[in-house]
Input
Amino acid sequence: MRSVQTQSLFTLSAVKPLDGLLRYRAFCVAATSRVLQGGTQRLTHAPGSGDPLAQYGDVEQIRYLRNPRDGSVFLADRPTPAAWKALLSEVSRYRHSPEAFHADLSQSRLDHVYAPKLEWIEDALRLQEIHRPSILEAMVAPSNFTTFLEESRSFAEVLVMDEMELASKPENALPTPRVGAAVLLESLDRALDPAALLQGVVSRVESGGLIFVTALVSSGFDFQVLGLHNRYLTPPDRANCFSLSGLLALLRQSGLAPLEVSTPGVLDVEIIRAHLHHEPSLPLSEFERQLLTADEQTQEAFQTFLQQQGLSSFARIVTRKPS
Output
């Protein structure tokens, strides 16, 4: 199975600065809390695996559960699909508004986040000898990635479909023919029903087609160190935070064969340092504090180690739908 590291370096401030995130996080937490007050159903078993869940802790009084077997973390209470869809739309609109930090970083995020993802997709298609397929983007509007896909010469057609619709509508809701590729950029992180979303996507991809998935994973270094102190664990964006093994199990259960599994993140150490600056009393071990004060060469070598061993908190996976 292929694994890819990245040599592309950028700072946390270029893509998701912690200080700027806090205002966005407060909006998300307030919106999620309001929706959850409207009635919910408690999650008892892990999406996909069906493993029983245990208590994990609260994020701003919003309960999370944990799968003791693989370390995946899930939002405990789930509202109706209609309420969740409205929440995702509300948060997405705010994220693209001038009030959120993303607006000030639009060009930087295009350069450091979306352009590399397009290159990753194009490279995988080339390696698998798939020429100009139609591609489906599972998304919550608006999506900055849609324009990248449309302007690329790598795709015969770009189809976009709301994630909640993919999880709930029958296969014939999408125009035929089926697509040769699909992309889910952190879609499973915010899916009310990750297994249903995957099923909806897989049913619309032709045999032999590729499905590209990115996700924050709870098995990554910064998540393991920070736990519930991790300010990037924010609902509804992170309703599900699978471990890498949990995510792979979900994909395989959906009938997909992994071709590439990588954790090419470059920000684990910097994320922890930013959290420590914001919250000096973080319960870090002596080793972790020593790492944060090490020289740049040591920190870069450690981050490379995390990438090579699949231990960074950002996962990038290429799967194939069997013929």
Residues 262 and 272 are 21 Å apart (CA to CA). The chain has a mean pLDDT of 91.
